[in-house]
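Researcher: I'm preparing a figure for a lab meeting and need a structural model of a single chain. I don't have an experimental structure, so a prediction will have to do for now. The sequence is pasted below. Please return the structure as tokens so I can convert it later.
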Amino acid sequence: MSAGTVAVAVIDDDVPMWDLYELGVVCTVFGIPHHDLADPWYDLRVCSAGGDVPQPGPFGLTLRASHGLEGLEGADTVIVPSVPEACIEGERELPGELLEALRRAADSGARMVSLCAGAFALAAAGILDGRRATAHWMHTEALARRHPRVRVDDSVLYVDDGDVLTSAGVTAGLDLCLHLVRRDLGAHVANQLARRLVVPAHRPGGQAQYVDVSVPEADDDSLAPVLHWAREHLDRPLSVEDLAARAGMSSRTFFRRLQAATGTTPLQWLLVQRLARAQSLLESTALSVERVSELSGLGTSANLRRHFTLHFGVTPTDYRRSFPPGAPGAAAA
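Model: Understood. Here is the structure written out token by token.
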């Protein structure tokens, strides 16, 4: 497992306030060292495709990047967090030198990532041709129209297509960044980082739940205690009825509220939590696969292997081999 170098490409020195969130997410996740979780942590480069002299921003904020586009060279991961609104609307072309730099990075084997409207840059560079990708639901129609060779999926929070990853807008960018940490350093490190950021380590569901309303209709505060309790008792054979009773709701009401809040069913939510617990135990303990399956609530080792292979493409034993003693997240039992 390795962190490596992350280069973030900023289109302008004058970054709109709305786009500062995605840039801030990248800098927060990859630019602040957490050596107690993984050492070394990521090496972050902020690379600007704008001019050498920053111009006054709309709120008195300007960005002076530490690197020009040459900073993308040699990076293990290249992230485009956003593009100007005029580029989304087709009123302005993306800088040719940026697109060429992105192509060179992709050709050299860098993992290419976009957050929100950053997908327009990867698409313009031809990196998304023939691939499944996503963006903020407000921009997916324009992305599909302007780049018909891209298979646009507007229903998901992010798409992991191996060496090319894209996310929906705003908070979904944080979901994808945590997913990258999970891929690089394991679930234990990603879970601990998510706790420090006070966000879920993994949000099931998709962005379709946010298309009609910006905030889910369900009362999240009423669900938080029972979901926290469920995470603390995953070794138990929990049912929808058990969780509904603990929440003081009927099973039908609980089902409806959880699905509205997370975009997934209670049983699917439980499965995601159980698999995350199994990942963490496999990484950080020497417990047997049988014991891991019991503590995560998946029952038998055969059931754990079946779900693990289906969701992660590897067996629990092969997954554990990626975390030898001394690796990030690994610890003795």
